[in-house]
Task: inverse folding
């Protein structure tokens, strides 16, 4: 049930941006994990429709336990906002709390290089691996927060959902979040003070769980955009009594590899 994170813009490809988890990705990852988590529950069961959205049909004539023993409706709404003008409770609404840049080095890893191995085989079948640069790296990080608002008609519902979401991100899915590129920082999540508002003739009980997160961005600029070719020199020597001796001082093998052809052949 996890949502995807696709950029239809051409700019990430044009500027060789290979990692950019700032605003949309952490929200979508959080929504996906919450939906997967509550889809396993019976009381606060999350059910999606055929389009992947929360399944919120018209509840006219539906029994009070609809969705408890079947998939006739979702019993909790999870998303960025309500899809329709009519809200559904209980609801878990996810929003971004903003981001700020946090450099991981003074020069944004500007002098880092990603290397690849090139196999060189001589006429006797001996294989030697040479390291060649494949990409120049630029990288950084950003820190911010994700706000998870819980809205319900009952105090017990609100408290249960707050505690379940807290446990989900403090331990159950903490490692999976980090492996997905979003780190929930130490001391997080945190639960804010509860509040209540009037809604027609009823009350809405509300509380917010905040995730303090850290993500990273990265650009891998191909060396092909900067370097045309790499020269590899091979010197022929022999090993005698533990020492390397040159067979013929003037005998050398030099080969110029076109970088584009070499990397394409890998």
Result:
């Amino acid at each position: 049930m996890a949502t995807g994170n696709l950029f239809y813009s051409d700019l990430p490809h044009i500027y060789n941006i290979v990692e950019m988890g700032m605003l949309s990705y952490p929200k979508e990852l959080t929504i996906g994990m919450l939906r997967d988590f509550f889809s396993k529950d019976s009381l606060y069961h999350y059910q999606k429709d055929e389009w992947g959205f929360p399944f919120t049909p018209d509840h006219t004539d539906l029994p009070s336990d609809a969705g408890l023993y079947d998939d006739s409706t979702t019993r909790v709404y999870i998303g960025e906002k309500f899809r329709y003008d009519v809200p559904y409770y209980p609801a878990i609404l996810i929003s971004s709390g903003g981001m700020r840049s946090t450099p991981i080095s003074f020069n944004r890893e500007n002098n880092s290089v990603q290397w690849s191995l090139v196999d060189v085989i001589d006429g006797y079948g001996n294989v030697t691996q040479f390291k060649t640069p494949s990409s120049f790296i630029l990288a950084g990080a950003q820190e911010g927060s994700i706000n998870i608002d819980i809205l319900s008609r009952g105090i017990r519902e609100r408290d249960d959902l707050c505690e379940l979401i807290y446990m989900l991100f403090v331990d159950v899915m903490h490692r999976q979040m980090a492996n997905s590129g979003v780190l929930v920082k130490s001391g997080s999540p945190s639960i804010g003070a509860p509040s209540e508002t009037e809604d027609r003739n009823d009350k809405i009980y509300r509380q917010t769980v905040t995730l303090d997160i850290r993500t990273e961005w990265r650009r891998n600029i191909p060396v092909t955009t900067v370097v045309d070719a790499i020269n590899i020199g091979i010197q022929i020597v022999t090993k005698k009594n533990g020492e390397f001796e040159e067979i013929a001082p003037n005998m050398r093998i030099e080969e110029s590899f076109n970088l584009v052809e070499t990397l394409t052949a890998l």
User: Anything to note?
Assistant: Helices lie at 11-14, 24-39, 155-172, 174-179, 259-265. The chain has two domains: 11-102+142-221, 116-138+224-265. The mean pLDDT is 83. The first strand starts at residue 17 and ends at 20.
